[in-house]
Amino acid sequence: MRLLVLITLFGFLPLATAHADSVVAACPSEWTFGTQKQRLLWANTWADDGAIDNSHGDDPVESPGRAIIRIDMAKVTQRPLFLYCRYKEMRGFNLAVSIPEGVKTCLVEWQGTEWDAREKVNRHYVRTLRAECRGTAHGEPSRVYPAEIPAPTSDIEGLRLRRSAEELKALVLSRGGTWTQWAEGAPADISFGEIKLRVGFSLSTGLSRKIILYGPPWPPRDPGFYASIIQRFGFPDTPYGDRCSRIWNAIGARKHIQVEWYRPCNTDSASAPQEMRLVDMADPQSMKDRK
Asked: Which residues, if any, are the signal sequence (predicted)?
């Protein structure tokens, strides 16, 4: 079971000015990944499938060496909502901090360089100093979700890649699930009560190369299934472009494990479910699927 860490809201980050509203979500200034303690490097506010910018708020407030970008959250209708907190590297060292309902504003303060005294702007932002959201939280409080790096040890409902059909079938039946596979090497359909999955097998090795978890249909729109992937694996590598799918660990994905989210597009049935996929990119068939 993955550890969900409640944010400590008081004594957490230095504030530049006093505010009437409380901090209800914030990026930790430091976080320990394994044995490595890293400080906050970069952050933004994330809504639905991508970062939102100051088009939802005022222009950045600039001063020598500092800039603050505020987002008016009343203008943000997309869900789910997170703070995207990145530490050290672009990949791996990141946290998803859930933003509760009731938030009024979110801000990111940047350290700036190359101050332009004439235009009164910083020409280069180098590091996030703080990222926080203020308001009155409704419902679930904010939580911090450390990103899991997709790996051969990653599983969906206990099912892993690079496993034989016999091994997976035994696991499913031992847990009281059902296993339907019409022929050797064919995909296997699995159910654990209301939970439905499909496992695809490699043509070359016979081992599992793709595991699909089916979620609720897209209409009526329910962001919970998509949010659960962010809570586990952090943020997708491809937040823009095709709005029907997102990919995690896509950069240099050859021979690596890749996570995918898919929702029905215009060509699909309106009742088609969302999907979370765990894919072995080392398998030749997986690479062909991307072409």
From this structure: 1-20
Q: Residue 107's domain spans which residues? A: 30-146
Q: 233 lies in a domain?
A: yes
Instruction: State residue 248's pLDDT score.
Output: 87
What is the rounded CA–CA span in Å between residue 18 and residue 71?
18
- The verdict on residue 59 lying in a domain is yes
For residue 3, what pLDDT is reported?
Answer: 44
- Shared-domain flag, residues 115 and 220: no
Q: Is the confidence at residue 183, as pLDDT, over 80?
A: yes
Within-domain flag for 258: yes
Write down the pLDDT at residue 104: 95
- Regarding whether 130 and 183 lie in a shared domain, the answer is no
**CA contacts within 13 A on the Cβ side of 87:** 21
